[in-house]
Amino acid sequence: MYNTTALRTSAAAPLRTLFSAFSAAVGRLDKSFSPTDTITRLQAHAFAKSDAVYIFHLILAVFWLTIMEVPSFPSKLLIPLLYIIALLVPFTSQFFVPATPIFAWLLAFYTNRFIPSDLRPAVHVVLLPTLESVLYGANISDILTRFTHPVLDIIAWLPYGVIHYTYPLVLSLFVWLFRPPLALKTWAKTFGYMNLTAVLIQILIPCAAPWYEVIYGLTPATYDVPGSPGGLARIDALFGGDGYQTAFSNSPLVFGAFPSLHAGWATLGALFITHFWDGTSPYVWTYVGVLYWSTMYLTHHYLIDVVGGACLATAFFYLFMPHELRAPSGARGGRSKYEQYDLEARRPVVGADEFASDTAESADLSDECEPDRPILYRSPNPNHGMQGQGEPIRQHAVQTTKKPGGGSGRMHRHTASIASLIRADERTEGWSPIGNKGFVFPPVSR
Hints:
It is built from 19 helices and six strands. The chain has helices at about 1-30, 35-45, 55-65, 80-90, 90-95, 100-110, 125-135, 140-145, 150-180, 180-205, 210-215, 230-240, 245-250, 260-275, 280-295, 305-320, 330, 335-340, 350-355, and strands spanning about 375, 385, 390, 395-400, 400, 410. It has a two-stranded antiparallel ribbon. Strands 2-3 form a two-stranded antiparallel sheet. A hairpin with a 3-residue loop joins strand 2 and strand 3. The longest helix has 29 residues, at about 150-180. It starts with a helix and ends in a 34-residue tail after the last strand. The model is unreliable at about 335-340, about 350-380, about 385-420 and about 425-440 (pLDDT under 50).
């Protein structure tokens, strides 16, 4: 009975947390549907140089819409019309404005198929395998595909063909629920611009994937060649379908091997997850490593494509992460002054034994090679150094103490005579915080 109750309690706790986070996230939303509110905010907006990026988006959108053949004119005018309406409504604009780079990437990815043939650059077939052999000493992707097995096919298929497409949506949901609003905007902007940059590179420098080398060899490629599912064709055969064959053969960007967006998505997601959630690194990076392998095992990417996608994601992560979210603790909703200045957390009571057993972790002022020396106490009163007939007072030595248990063997050297730095000229003559005579109360005035 006790175990059943405990199980229900443990299962209900995450649900309560999820419901509370959802309620808080919904409460933060702008629920206005009046375009007047958006126009008012636009009039009050102080334009900055960074807003010029929307001019770039406008020029790019006009270009893609001009060459777009499906849907044809005038049906394709519904795309900008619906987008403008979404921007004018406050409730939808709070999602569509941060997602503008994502929509720009999707538009470029879909419409690049309509670029005239005479404007397209030549497809590079030999470039990637040559670079891989030169940089890594062998064609790594070719080595990984020499042995296949249905179990390995399933292991490669799950991250590459299933989790990959749901990964960004689930991460967006969790960032929206459990992190500050700025975090979701940062994720959307970083994800969108990374994908847009990668697609533009793939359009300007088209490169054939390993599946092309397997099917056609290193013969020159043309844009009439249909896409191929590569190793995912074995998944179609395993489940008796043709979903991946249909999807990849109709891909609008057949020669987009470099950089690998599968690697880019996984790397960027891992960087965000480990940045906002402590303790997730082993699990997230294990998934990323398996996905890296799966891209080559399924003959969709060379190793250099994976490296290029990972580097692109890392660069965009650090380029777009705002200062307010750079510290992981700050990303979770603010830092204490102890974290901000890299100080040890405040303790309720500091006893003599606890103080003496501190190591140099919070204030590392010691050197492991430095011998242990006593710190001599110096009185803050310069005239207190003589007693009686010019006889000097014996100085008190404060020995360094070792931390119980040995550890690294470092000594915590306690700084002495702090009182000498604070209003030494106003202290009474003969007073000392540490002395043979102790405190004198009331102090004798000058």
